[in-house]
Structure formats: C-alpha cells, structure tokens
Amino acid sequence: MNTTNQPNIIEHARKSLNWTVQDVKWIPNAASFVSLGSYARGTGTIQVYKLSFDDQNSKTQLEKTLEVPEQEHALKCGTFDFNTSLNDCSQVACGDVMGNLSVFDLNRGGSKVYSIKNAHSSLINQIDGAGLMGKGAPELITASRDGSVKIWDVRQRDRPVVSLEPDDGETVRDCWACCLGNSYNDEERVAVAGYENGDVKIFDLRMNALRWETNVRNGVCSLQFDRSDIEMNKLLATTLEGRFYIFDMRTFNNETGYAHMSHKEHSSTVWCGKHLPQNREVFVTTGGSGSLYLYKYSYPAQRSVGNPPKGVAGTVNLLSKATMSTQPIPSLDWHREKTGLAVMASFDQCIRVAFVTKLNKI
Fold first, then answer.
1. Global pTM?
2. More exposed terminus of the chain, fewer Cβ within 10 Å: N or C?
3. Which residue segments constitute the domains of the chain, with CATH numbers given?
C-alpha cells in the first residue's frame, strides 16, 4: 500500500503532572490551552500552558503560565464555546463533581465571575457551549449523573433556561454526554444528550420538545456535530466497547428516523470523538487503550432515497492511527486556527500536544 500521502500522528510535546487531568481545551486565538482536573485530595485545579521553544535542548516544551487558585471540588469538564467573540475568549466554564457550574476569567487571574451552586444534584459529566457559533444567546449545556440536561444563559443567574429531567417514576439514567447544534440562525437550536444505557435524545429548544430518540446499545461517551453553526448535517456518537456511530441528520423519516452507520476499530471504550474544524469530514477518536484513530467520512452517491425520503449513511476510511499513552485519553481538542494541531489529556497524568501531517492532501 502506498502511504506517501497518508497523514501521520506525531507527538510534539508532553508534560507530566502530579494531578489527574480530566479535560483540555485550546484558548481560541492563542497558542495556549487550559487543562483541568483534580488532585488526589479531591480538590480541583485549572492550569494554563503555552507552547514555547527550549533553545538549550532544541525542542518544544509546555510552559505553565497560570494556575487558578485551588478549587474546593474536583473539576470534570470545561468549554470556551459560550463566549460570544473569538476576539475575547478569556472565560472558561467548568462543571465539577458536586454539580456546581462556574465561569473563570483567565484575564483576571482565574477569578470566578459566574457561579451556580448545585446546578445539578450530582456530578456534571460534560459541558458544551453556544456562543462562538455567532447565532442566538450565549448558552451552556450541562449533562449530569442526576439524569438531567440543563441549558444555561450566562446573562441570567440562579436558574436554567431549560431543564430536561426524567419524568416522575422514570428510571434515572446517568447522562454522560451532551452537545448543542443546529444553530444556523438566532431562533433554531437543538440539544443532544447521551446516556449510560445507550439512549440518544435530541431536543428541539425552540419548540421545547423531544425531537427524536434512539438507542445505540452501549453507553454514550461523547457527542459532537460536525459543525454546530449550520443546519444539522452529521452527528458523531462514541460509545463503550470500541464503537462509534455517525448519524446523517439531513433527512428524517417518520418510520426509520435518521440513517446511521456504525464502526468498531478500538479494542476498548471510545472516550471521545472530535471533528477537524478545517475539514468536517475528518475526525479523530480516542480510546481506552491510549490510542488515536483518524478517519475520513465519505458521503454516499445519494444522501436520500424513496418517497417519503429515507436518509442514506456514508462510509468511513481509516487514515492513520497511533498509540499515545498506556492509559485512556478522555479528552482531545483540535486547534481552531492551526490545522492538525491537537492537545489531549490522559489518565497517566500527562498532557500532550500532537500534530497530524498531510491533512491538506485529503
């Protein structure tokens, strides 16, 4: 096989830490990223690192530029995506293990500028934002072990804009994943939630109603639209037991719902899936064995058939793979401006920056 033009995943820099990293996010328009997690004593930490060049050793290193004062509780997840301007993205929203939601301003030493105590009654598993989309309100979505999904407007304190909770008497399922999308104008927006039992539910926030639901048979670890600021196109869901699903969201059929394809390559849990910002048909998945798999999605010749129309799912092609760690990689984030530059967290208490070559040839 000719691999001349195939992408390669290369570790660029690594730093060992004395605490467990749960999430990492690039700061928009910067060569710096935020890492957050917990110390062994159960407290939380947020640290900012930047890429710098060590002249003495002739290599790139990760230099800590800010450490936010230690938090009372361990932090689980964070996002910058609720900020309304790429030119001012100094605030990061975080969820902790006690269900608290906080926003920290990195330009003010990490001071807390927004806080909701007991936003959930239990651990916040995942958080996503809708501000950088440029449409509608600067909102956050949180998913919790208490089974609820909540939408927050950072301009409004004390209570959520929307709270999606289990009905009385319904079994409470741990909600592991969430994301926002379909934000192609100021009115439209959907929230997607994934649960421990494999349920995937799509909520129409404009209509305040359940739009569609399905079950993928294994716990849903992450969810992401290929782009959040357009009409729904593709939704990537990663699960336990090494499998991921891609739903074609352009064609809905009342009987069959949205078309999808599934694929299994990892030997263990697929913790995270992220589309490349510069090419939404390329995405990466991270595994419980410390592996990264890079794929390209190909659309079918026809995306819908029949009358009434049914969607047709595409196929995926493995472009490259690499083992970066001996432990799971729970979080990865692509840089918005530098194609192929990624930062990742792993449970070996390391943060790593990697780059993927030859993406311009895909």
1. 0.96
2. N
3. 9-361 (2.130.10.10)
